[in-house]
What does this fold into?
Amino acid sequence: MKDYEFLNKIITLINSKKEGEYWDFKEQHHNNKADLLHDILCMSNNRADRDAYIIFGVSDDFEIRGVNNDENKRNQQQIIDFLKSKSFSGDIKPIIELHNFQFEKSQIDVLTIKNSDDTPYFIREDYQYRGRRVRANHIYTRIGDTNTDIDKSADINHIEYLWKKRFKINRSPLEQIKYKLQFVEEWNEREGDQVFHHKFQPEFTLKLESDGDRGKTEFYSYTMMNTTTEFGSLKVCYFGTTLFSHQFTVLDGGRLRTTVPEWGLVDYGEYNEKNILYKYYIVGTINYLLHKLLTGKNDEALIANKNLYSVIVIFKSALEKDSFEAYLRNRISEFKSYFIQEKDSYNWIVTQTKQEKKHEINRLKTGKVINKMLKQFRSKRKSS
It folds into this structure.
């Protein structure tokens, strides 16, 4: 979110002339660090299921006073260090960001507590400061515009909600199954019938249905020892109802099963009449999680998967994908130079026509060059 969009959101909250379930106003930064910790815990466990904001520089009557001369003012690193020094359950700490804005002549500080499914957040050891004590193993939350009292724990129904949030029990079946796919060891495949079921909740199943399409070779098949390729449909089901489906493929003579990667496109030219096509996965998406599950861990599959990754791009997030495509769009001449320099000629590839062979070779080289440029992109971002 751009700064001006974020500021507009905060100004809208101030103009509402009230506090709410995910935002709170403070005229000054906390004088007492126990109160700061208490407020962060309450906001991190908010029931609105969204980012929460502590807005500094706004009085009880919702007037902007600013924190220009606030002697208690802290920067982001100081707050992060403060949280690091506390003993949180599971060593999982709230993620925070501190934003500073100039509004007319006043500076407003906004402490954002990022929304997370790692609830409930609580500490394992008491923290006491100047007569105020945040209690160990007490779960604090925020209901409406009110925090749980510092000497009490939240009501049981609110605590239950926070635990359900952590384990995705309050999510849709598709969101639940996406969470469960992260734990490959919890899925068993029924031998011979290409059906996976969840070990603890067998109502969640994955069904692989082959369509008998053998011989249609994708460009990435040529990275394998055996170019034989088969396709089918993978269905994600809940009590027999299909929630999600995607094409899967069997590569390298049966050594590797995987979901089919997505197509990416980078257009360029004066009228965007030219484009670069490539295939990718995004870490954390259901397609990627299914890919990891199907791949398995046997040595032959891992070798085949490594070959696949040489021409398929793995993005860390959708944001990285968008940012990299913008980066690539501004470096087309560099892309073309790397493409020409790509050493592997792939002359051994056998296709029905010369045009088809050229087409497949171009896609293989494109995948390798994009992976090279993605590595450079990440290195530049890290160094900056």
About this structure: The chain is about 35% helix and 25% strand. The chain has a mean pLDDT of 94. The chain has two domains: 3-166, 173-383. The first helix runs from residue 3 to 15.
